[in-house]
Each structure stands twice: as structure tokens, then as C-alpha cells.
Amino acid sequence: MRVKLLAGNWKMNKTNAELPAFFAGLSTELRIELAAVQDKVEVLFAASYTLLQKALELAGPHKIRIAAQNCHWLESGAYTGEISLGMLQDIGVRAVLIGHSERRQYYGETDQSVAAKTKAALSKGITPITCVGETLEERKANKTEAVVQRQLLAVLNAVEQPGDLIIAYEPVWAIGTGHSASSAEAQDVHAFIRQVVHQKMGKNAAAAMRILYGGSANPANIAELLTQPDIDGGLVGGASLKPDDFAKMIRAALEVAH
Ligand code: 13P
Q: 3-state SS of 155-215?
């Protein structure tokens, strides 16, 4: 049984001063203790580096996980401005987003760097949430599966065991556009991803791997997305910034998980 995971990606938003009200608001809106439903739904936020420590402190009592949004694959060295996995581990971070399309698009992230980062995270015992997804042009040219397969195989070829690797399918055309993939469109690609994992890593790895959907997921569409057999959770941008919206999504995930 794959436990649903609702992950918020705050991107370059929020300050430390805003965090106490955010977590208090989330807890009030939820009206349930997340710790009591951990076997059904897990919650995570990916935060900017400067927020991680405070977020860990505030999220810990609710059993909410905190992830970084990027990392370097090397331990240390002359890489000005970079953060290593050891540094994240040092402050208690146990998960990291890797290869988000915004990083691929604006910061030169490649299939190779995404693979190296994913491999390094797994070897450190830090959960990688590795993102794949096609652009609108690629979808229109019927290249969705080819692109997703290329991105995924770069990662799977680099790691020996998938461990607790999580894949996020985020079609670029759906991110921040208000135009989510339909549940059927998302399910098709999720099933394809699971099939590629099956071929490469075997049946058990494919059955255990969580595959999240991201791209304009919101309180109105999350339940339908999560009822699809291969959609194990969401990676949520805009709608994760407001505690009331995100609480609604967690509650919807809980209902689906029952
Ligand atoms: P939106 O939910 O704002 O479309 O962002 C999705 C995303 O990029 C999550 O990583």
C-alpha cells in the first residue's frame, strides 16, 4: 500500500516571520492531528534554504516533513553558493526536490545533474523527490512519453536501488497556469512511468514507488486526481502557500485514502 503524499512546493516564497502563522493556520483548518493519520496521508513542504530550520522546528510536532528545493551532488568544495546534502542533513533535513522544471529551464539543470543529485541523495538516506515532465511543444509533438522516459531512465540508470525515491510528474504546461492535466491525462503518464520503473527495476520497486502529480493541483481537482490508480499524491505550488487551501487538499487526500 502506497501512503498518499501531499507535498507543498513553496518555491521562492515566505519568510521565517510568516511561518508560525502558517503552521498554526494549517493545524486549525485541518481539525485533525496529522500524526494520527500518517498511515493514510503524509504531508511535506519544500522550503527555501533560509526557512528550513524554522520550518523543521514548527512542522516536527505535526509530523510534517520538510524538504529542500535543491542540493549539490558533491560533499564539499569550491562551489560558491551551493548547498551539499551533508549540510542539509546537518540541520535535520531528510528530503529534497531534484530537477524541478524551473531549475531545468532557468538554471541549466540537466538529466545528468538530476541523476547525480538523486543518486547522492539516496546514498545519504535523504529522500529525493525527482521531477520529470514535458513542455507544451513536446506534448503537441506527441513526445510526452519519449521525454519522460529519457528523464526517468537517466535517473534509474544512475541508481542501483530506487530506495525511497519519489517521482513527481509535472507537465511544464500545467505549472502555474491554472490549467491542470486532466486526471486521465495524468494517469496515462503515471502508468507509463510505473511501467518504465517496472522494466528497469522490477515489479516490487514499481509497485512501491510513489509517483506524485504536479501542475495547477488545487482544492477543486485534487480528489479526482488522487482517485487515479497510479497517482500517489500531489506536488503543489500556488495552492500550498495558503493554509486553508492546503488543508482542504489534505482533507480531500484523506477521504480518498479511506
Ligand atoms: P503550481 O501548483 O503552482 O502549478 O506549481 C506546481 C509545481 O511546480 C510544484 O512543484
A: HHHHCCCCCCCEEEECCHHHCCCCCCCCHHHHHHHHHHHHHHHHHHHCHHHHHHCEEEEEC
Write the CA distances from 15 to 34, 86, 98, 168, 237, integer angstroms: 24, 24, 22, 25, 16
Nearest CA to ligand 1 atom 5: 237
Out of 100, 102, 109, 138, the active site residue is 100
**Using one digit for the tens of pLDDT, what is the confidence trace for 55-92?**
999 999 999 999 999 999 999 999 999 999 999 999 99
pLDDT digits (tens, 9 = 90+) for 226-252: 999 999 999 999 999 999 999 999 999
| Residue 134 annotated among the catalytic residues of the structure | no
* Catalytic hit among 102, 109, 134, 170: 170
- Torsion sign across C-alpha atoms 206, 233, 227, 183: negative
> Which residues are 96's β-sheet partners?
68, 128
Give the Å distance between the CA of 170 and the centre of ligand 1: 8
Active site (annotated) includes residue 62: no
